[in-house]
Amino acid sequence: MFEQATTPIQELAISTEKLNLWYGTFQALFDIDLSIRQGIITSMIGPSGCGKSTFLRSVNRINERLGYVRISGTIDVMGENIYDPAVELVQVRKQIGMVFQRPNPLPISIRDNVLFGHRIHNAGTRTTKIEDDEIVENALRTVLLWDKVKDRLDQKATALSLEEQQKLCIARLLPVKPGILLMDEPCSALDPKGTEAVEELIWELRGQYTILIVTHNMAQARRASEECIFMLMGKVVEHTETGQMFVTPKHKETADYIEGRYG
Amino acid sequence: MERQSTGAVAGVDSSFDQLNRDWYIDKAVQILVFLGGISAIVFIIGIFIFISKEGFGFLVGDFNFREFFFSPNWRPTSESRETFGILALIAGTASVTGLAMLIAIPFSLGAAIFIAEFASGKTREFLKVTVELLAAIPSVVWGFIGLAIMNPVIIQTFDVPVGLNVLNAGVILGLMAAPIMTSIAEDALKAVPDRYREAAEAMGATRWQVIYKVVLPAAKNGLLGAVLLGVGRGFGETMAVLMATGHSINIPTSVFDSVRALTATIAAELGETAAGSSHYQALFTIGIFLFVITFIINLAADLIVRGIRKG
């Protein structure tokens, strides 16, 4: 069922082995073996409930908030098993940023949102206001938001438009320099114009970050990713180069889904 | 089309202008519910008018603004010259309420944070029920605890002559106010959307960082409302304060001084005054003062709590 993308091991950002996941007694993931290459955009597609969000949410262990989640198997990030008991959860999440389906800026100022992660990960060291300003400006420039918000950095972030909120949610991940960005349907709450803008931004970030993006939108997967993973019923069906998957899918299920026969 | 027209025709000659029983029941219930709804307003206005009427004579007659608010001498039954100064009573109420809040705020916030953010399942349910039970204890029981238990404990522990004082009443009132403050504060914390917590946790914030950097700031209006309701409770509480303060007129200089509260003064003296006398009217003027203060506090609390719902 699984197509190994042929890449040397040291270039892998995320690799999983026999990953199974249960919500209580319900099994959501079955023997997932995936190798996600560093520095590219990989998209995950599949019908609702196929486990793509679940997979994403277990990569930064945010799934554990639910309390009744159990896993077996391993997830290695940058060669380290993040489910190892010795691993510090805070460091895992510093390394792996996440963008959620619904923009979720914190109900504090734009500036404080951008600095939030930076502050919690540098709790001991006091940074000067000038350094902070620089961090804020760089992050907001990267997400193409600086010119729009530079005069109202002290306003509440929740007052921004959804598109701006989502860009801010990406911007606030950058100051802690994560290696990986997980994006869980980042455009599904946005209008077409916002979607285009955020997609463009994701494309800009390519190369600097390893990006794993879950999407319902086939066109988006095709436009905005280099490799593509198709999941169905908690299993990985196909993982290949995006162009190839959309032109010559190897599996019948993939072809059916891409052509809109179900999902 | 056909069906409708036959229906309409049948309706015109039989039942369109008839009022059946259901119609009357519906109307009656509407009126009843409306009366219930406005009764609170009617009562509060009625109470205010009544208190004002009784205190009015004093306000236009013997009332001396400066003496009333700035004199510590409350001598309503003096043979030579009656004085009605409530400064000492205000000081009594304020000191007890202040100490009570110093005790209740950390306890209730701590309890609310634990219940809302940490406890789960059975622990949470058990705690919530217990807190509600605590809120249901009658104030005379609290007063009894102050009188019978706290009093000797304070005398022994601090080696002071009297155990009925600001400390005693403050502790009792703090424990009384804490449950209701806990409930309101917990509601405020629960009202913070979970996606804020999730967002902060995904950025690597620890449980505590999530609480004090995200949840508490987001809930601060509700928490302030909870504190204000506690203050209102403290101002209005009578029986427990009457029993635990020592009831002696005094501007306190330490927590071991006995004091007397505004409410307790009314409760203790009103029965012994002649209706319509200056003393009687002065007590009602205290009533007006208390009414206005608690009204302002509650209104402020309400407006603040409403503030969070909107934004």
What does this structure look like?
The complex is a heterodimer of chains A (263) and B (311). Helix content of chain A is 34%, strand content 25%. With 263 residues, chain A is α/β, with parallel strands linked by helices. Chain A has a single domain (9-258), classed as P-loop containing nucleotide triphosphate hydrolases (Rossmann fold). Chain A has a 6-stranded mixed sheet with strand order 7-8-9-4-10-11, with helices on both faces. In chain A, strands 1, 2, 3, 5 and 6 form a 5-stranded antiparallel sheet that branches. The longest helix of chain A has 14 residues, at 129-142. Chain B has 311 residues and is mostly helical. Chain B has a domain at 88-273 and 293-310: MetI-like fold (Orthogonal Bundle), CATH 1.10.3720. Chain B has helices at 2-14, 21-60, 65-70, 87-118, 121-135, 139-158, 166-190, 194-202, 207-218, 220-236, 239-244, 262-269, 278-310, and strands at 74-75, 83-84. A two-stranded antiparallel sheet of chain B has the order 1-2. Chain B starts with a helix and ends with a helix. The model of chain B is unreliable at 1-8 (pLDDT under 50).
Provide a brief overview of the structure.
The complex is a heterodimer of chains A (263) and B (311). Chain A has 263 residues and is of the alpha/beta class. Chain A contains 10 helices and 11 strands.
